[in-house]
Amino acid sequence: MTTFKSTPHTVRERMVIKLGGSTLEGLTEEFFKNFKKLQQQYDLIITHGGGPAINRTLEAQNITSYTVEGIRVTSEAAIDVVQSTLIGIVNPSLVHELTQAGITAVGLNGFDSQLLLADYLDEATYGFVGEVKQINTNLLDRLIEAGIVPVIACVATTTEGQALNINGDTVASEVALAVNAKSLLLVTDVDGIRIQEQYQDEVTPQMINAWIASEDIYGGMIPKVQGALTCLQAGIPTVQIVGAALTGTIIKSEGK
What we know:
Elements: E1 14-19, H1 21-24, H2 29-39, E2 43-48, H3 51-60, E3 66-68, E4 71-73, H4 76-100, E5 105-108, E6 116-120, H5 123-126, E7 130-135, H6 137-145, E8 149-153, E9 155-157, E10 163-165, H7 168-178, E11 183-187, E12 194-195, E13 198-199, E14 202-203, H8 205-214, H9 221-233, E15 238-242, E16 248-252
Parallel strand pairs: 1-2, 1-11, 2-8, 5-8, 11-15, 14-16
Antiparallel strand pairs: 3-4, 6-7, 9-10, 12-13, 15-16
Helix pairs in contact: 3-4
């Protein structure tokens, strides 16, 4: 009798890519090219917000919007705009761009098989804003196993079916933790952290805090790095701030 040794199934590492803001509305050919290169090594999941598109619709409908501690206070009228804009416009547009680039992708949001279950964060303060309580990783697993890139809009649902707005970095972090991602990529309009005209390949939280204190990190980069540090503190092994090339600055804790 002839026997054959079975080849063990190699589990590929996972990576979450968070797209937001102006970056989402200006994806380049270079981005899609490098996305395909990453696919050769990792199983990829995309999460996205859509702040500029939401702001335009809110303004057009004369709906007041403001933030408290970086979180968009979301009224009943505003959550309708957030839901319709992210799920109805931004998400399908992104999926279409990926498809046109030859990438098999499917659009998702919190309502799909209760992908993102949430409770109110603090209804009195923030309105219809949620905090993630549960992520349906089985759904993500099945899509990834089928070679499909999940593209997740940052809209969650309560068990009763109420849509809740979730901060984009928060969803990216929660998804990355839930799927045991090796890294989280925060795609921005710059190619990483630049100190004295020099882009940094690898940094630590301690280095970042020192650069903020010395004002080598300033302006719009401050919230970017603070968001990255929050994700790192949540338990993600590495967080990267990257540009269209999907390479940039790797942020990792001391000793890792």
